Each structure stands twice: as structure tokens, then as C-alpha cells.
Amino acid sequence: MTRTARDLLKTITAELAPDPRSNPLVPLIAAGRADREVLAALALEQMRVIPADRRAFLHLAVRSSAEPEADAYFTALADGEAIAQRRLPAFAAACGVDETRAAAYTSLPGCQAYPAYVAWLALNAAPADAVLAVTANFSAWGGYCATIAGALRTHYGFDDEACAFFDFFAEPAPALDRTAERAVQAALDGGRLDENRARDHGHLLQSYEALFWRTLERPA
Predict the structure, then answer these.
(1) What does the pLDDT look like over 156-181, one tens digit per residue?
(2) I need a surface site. Which of 30, 184, 187, 216 has the fewest CB within 10 A?
(3) Which residue from 79, 78, 61 is spatially nearest to 70, judged by alpha carbons?
(4) DSSP string of 142-211?
């Protein structure tokens, strides 16, 4: 039986699902036991991650000009990052981060490894392989954001505006999922998808995601 994009996305997302122990910080936030300075560091790191990822997705869209389904997927991701970037300042402000502090901040290498690899994918990965890897990774990220959004309201007293950044990523995105499925299916039909390479990309993305959270928990 011919394998479908939906089956492949479901399989690889399950294969790459992170071990719950790989993210020690989100459970601390969920319990209200993370220091507010850690939340400030999360905001500061995301202020570097989001615009970097947006540019990487735009570059992938340009590289996908011969693959309209992948082009549409990466363009949608870039548009989403632009929305997130507009919502991030409210979270940063609630954490006590202003423009002066943001400008003086020195990024943590363990946190910036993730966007560095996304940029590597933008330059080197076959677009279809990147679609599969990124889609699998976003499944875990959305769950983290949903947990954080709830905890910020319950334990830290943040209002809806301050939580909007995490609310955005926590929301189901059926249209984006369908776009990813179409891109993967077109690549399967055209023989352009390297499943092993896509798995490798996805594995590294998940590993760098875990490194991001471990670094924030123990920044020293």
C-alpha cells in the first residue's frame, strides 16, 4: 500500500516525540517554581530566536519556488513568526525586560543552537525534508507553550496580553497542518523526499530544543 503524507507525518512525529525528562524547565514553570529571572531569560532568548527563524523560513520559501506546496508552508511559518514577534514584547515587559536590558543581554549559546540549526536547514536542507522535520518538532513546542500559558496566568499573575505569545503557538493550526501534508505528499509523489535525512534533521531539531530548555534551567 502506498504510504501517504499523513501517515508519514504521524509516524515521524511520534518517533521524534521528546522524552518528558528532556525538558526540566517547563514542569517547573507549570508548578510555579521557576524564578521570574528565568522567565525573563526565556523572553530575552525568544527575542533573538523568533526573528532569526522568520528569516530562515523566508529563505526556505525562496528556495522552494519550484515546489509551490513547500513554498506555501514556509511562507505561512514566516507569517506566523511575524505575528509571534508582535506579541512577544508584552511577555517581555511582564518579566521586567525593557529595551535597555534587551540591548545589553548576552545570548546563551545553548539556547541559540536551535535557531542556528534552523538557519542551517534554510541553507542546506532539501525543502521537503525540512517540512517534515519542522512539522514534527512543532508538535512538542505547541504543547510546551500551552503549559506555559496556563502557568503564567495561574502562578505568576500574567494577563492575557502577556500570555498571547504562548497562546498563539499553543493554538491548533489545522490549515498549517494541511499545508504541510500537501507539501510532503507532493514531495513523495515527485520522489523528492529523503525520509532518513528528514528524520536526522528532526532529531537534531528536537535535541537542540531540549538543549534550549536545559540551558535556561541551568544558565551557568
Answers:
(1) 999 999 999 999 999 999 999 999 99
(2) 30
(3) 61
(4) HHHHHHHHHHHHHHH---HHHHHHHHHHHS--HHHHHHHHHHHHHHHHHT---HHHHHHHHHHHHHHHHH
